[in-house]
Every structure is written in C-alpha cells, then in structure tokens.
Design brief:
This protein has helices at about 1-20, 25-30, 50-55, 60-70, 80-85, 90-100, 120-140, 160-180, 195-200, 220, 230-235, 245-250, 255-270, 275-290, 305-325, 355-360; strands at about 35-40, 75-80, 105-110, 145-150, 185, 210-215, 295-300, 325-330. By secondary structure, it is an alpha/beta fold. The protein folds into two domains: about 25-215 and about 270-360, TIM Barrel (Alpha-Beta Barrel); about 230-270, no CATH class.
Amino acid sequence: MRLIARLLLAAVALLAAAARGEATLPPDRIAALARGINITNWFRYPARADEAGLRFYLDDAAIAELRRAGFTFVRLPVQPELLDAVPARLGVLLQAIARLQRAGLAVVVEPHPASWHLEQSEADRGRLLAFWHRVAPALRSLEPRLTYPEILNEPVFQEAPGEWEALQVEALAAIRAALPQATVVLTGADWGGVDGLAALHPVVDPNVIYSFHFYEPAELTSLAAYRPGLDRAALSRMPFPMAPAACHAAADSTSEAATHDLIAYVCSLQWDAQRVDLRIDRAAAWGRENHAAVLLGEFGAARALNATARLAWLAAVRRACEQRGIGWALWGYDDTMGFGIDPRARPRAVLDQATLSALGLGGGH
C-alpha cells in the first residue's frame, strides 16, 4: 500500500508539474547540453552534397578532438531542401548523428531551411510539419538520452508570435507521437532571441528545453553584417568592454560618416560584461518564472573582430550562462563566427586554443 501511495503521489506531482509547465528533465539531459558546438555546414549549404561528401565531412579524428576539448554536444543544422531533393540523405544524416553519439556527444537536430517563409506561406508551414513527420520516426533508432529534436531555427513571426506558438505546438505533437522519450528543444519568435523567449508561453510538456540565440550587439559581433557599405575595418577595431578612449579611436579611424556614427552610437550603450549579464539574466529569469530549462543554442563573434574584444565577449557570454546554469553552443566549428575550420582542408586546422580558453575549455589536440 505504501508503494502504491508513493506512486500515486508521484503521478499527481508529475501532472501538477506538467500543468504548470515545470521542467522535470532528468539531470543527465541538462548536463548533456552543457557545452556545445554548431557544425554549420555538414548538412547545410555543403560544399559537396553527394553521399560521400556528407558522410565524411567530419572525420572521426575531428569528432574525437571536439570531445577531448570538453564539448558535450553538437547542434546539427539540417537544410530540409537537401533531404527533399534526395530522400536517401536521411540515412546519411542518421549515420552522422550515430558517429557523433558514439564519441559521447549528444546531438541537437534542427531544420535550418534556406528558402522557407513560414510567416507568409501556409505551404512552408506544412513543410515544417512534414519534415518532422518524416525525420522524427527515423530518430527512434538513436539513443534518446543523446538525441534532441529542435523544432526550427530562428522563427521570425515578429508581427504574429501567437501564430508561431500554435505552429510550434503542432510540430511538437508530431515529434512527441514518434519520440515520447525525447527531450525536445523549443524556441520563441523574433529570430529566436532573448526577447522572443521572454514573450513565449511555455507548453504543457515537462520534457522540453527552451533555446534562445545571442549575438548582441550585432554591430560588434557581426561587424554590422546586416548593413552593407560600412567600413568593416573600422568596425573591427571596436572594443569590448566599450571603454570611451578605445571607442573614440575606433570611430575616428574611419572617414566614412555612417560607420563613424554607428560606432559612436553603439559605444554610447557601454556594452560590457555586466550588460551581457543583464540580457542573459532576462532569459534565465523567464526560465525561473516558468519552471523551465533554458539553453543558449547559438552565440559567436566574427573572427575579423580584434582578438581582445572577441575573446572578452565570448568569455563574458559563456560566464553569464554558466553562472545561471544555462548550457551554450558556439556558432560554429566551421563558421567564421566561431573556429572557422574547413574540415576538408589538409592538413585540417585544429581548434584554436585562445577561443577554447575563452570558452573555459581545455586543449583540443
């Protein structure tokens, strides 16, 4: 009778937690998503999309290097158009995930479309659901403890976040029908940023984790890549923390008026580790208020940014997350916002020690 009573109490507690949206994730699920790296071009814009090119994009030595460096998971963007063009590529994707998992790495799998416009296109919303109706059952052969489906990369829906929430719930149902044990990664609208997360209503499913992305301020981290025609060399001289003297020097190093004014404006915001803390804490506070686990799924800074500012910004974001118990994933292994490694180059570059140190990780080779 005592055992039955305990089971009944546990069931009631689980139902209550689900009703409140509380995270009841096993500790090992959260631990698996502690320190991550995005492999940005394995199944997204690959240089070679044939079977051999996809199968051997990252060799076993490179995967082992990631594990030795201290990474616990890989986030794997998947371009749905690649799978649509050649259905057999789904098998190659599963083999790639299995190789990463054999090395002890958890894997987040997320659709990263190149041509969808979900905000305007009902057909594209159907394509998202079709992706998961196809891919989720295929993931059943993998270890649930190491396999994390993510609904979608950076949904926009700035004018209609409720439409995104409804679509996300529908996609979650498709995944959950095939993968009842999986921890699913959800995200907010507005490009999946901090503000999108803060406006999101949590779902009634305890086995989920909520992701956000962080590249603030974009004028520093991406050298204002969103705006053509600026003086990138001057932008690359911006400091972090934004000390006045260094800011003035960066602004005065260009004769291009728009660049000068942009640097002056961004520097007036006085970005430093404390300001980063405040932004990350907004995501952490949302998690606390909603009893939800939170993950920083992407962050990074252009390698063209001066090394002092870049490494200080990476370290500030990483520390802000770790102090709040938030896992993180750098974008990315093969992207200039991260390590910038071309896995096909011979000899292949090894992980940059200065970047690893900023991430609080050990030697990569």
